[in-house]
Amino acid sequence: MKTRRESNLSTLKTLNKLWGQIVTLESLISTMTESDKLVMDQKEALGMYDRYSSEYDKNTLQTMVPIVNHFLSLIPPLDSSSIVHDNACGTGIVTQTIIANMELKTLQDDQPSKLTFHCTDLSPDMIDKLSAKIQKFGWNNVTATVMDASQLTFDDEWFTHSFTNFGLFFLPDPVQGASHIFRTLKHGGISISTTWGKVGFLASMRKADELTRPDLPSITDTFTDNWTQESFIRSVFEDGGFAGSHGIVTFDRCETSLQANSIEEHTHSFWTLFGYSDKGWTEDDKKKWVAAFVEELSKSDDCYTDTVGICHVRMSALICKAVKF
Asked: Which domains does the chain have, with CATH numbers?
């Protein structure tokens, strides 16, 4: 049995250890830079997608399909045994693209090919839009559920594939999100996660913000450099479980563009998407901002109009492929 003196010494050692951990944590917080923070607060991101859900397919489908097709080319073909998690699915563009590809293959091969999709997203509005698609197109192999990618409720080793298209960087704890991807994948399962390696409108938007409201932080401050860096994304997935003998992480890139009928249409879309009005910007601010953004974007090498008059803004997707061993 410990004496009182020994018990006091043990308590003191424990308190010293806890104090050391607190000091270390405070030190880490004090040295945290802007690039260590989230791309956008999850609540703010949820509001953004709820505002944008009705226009999401119209404004992003042509941008996303080339990316989805590209990352599908990096993995073995999906088949009827595949169980796919469309994680942070939005309106289900990944699922929709895969189904279209499978239907085309069926027509070519005269062999029916159906796989199972479980689509989840934190935004009820996005899930409502996807549910309408499921009903419209009769996708009886697709389910759509409101679910937080940080708190997946699926069983362990459930999926053969997990696709997270431009969603992981919104999570408060992306490592936790990656760990749920790892946990829910079968051994040999494949995760694909995408982020933006290049955002062609970013510099023009930042300049328009500065010219219109120099008294306010730029909306573009929510975009951070870490999610454009392979080393950072690799660390997220390796810390989430895909490391050593448990998995491997590799990268690829895909060029694409945002498309609209005009620069002005792009600009009005961005105003809505990023919720300027909700952040206190006035209608007078909007007029000045739109004019400034149009002028800056028209001068950018990342903006061009094609032969049929469609205005493109260049974007580049960074694709992270993680395999669970």
From this structure: 38-199+224-257+314-324 (3.40.50.150)
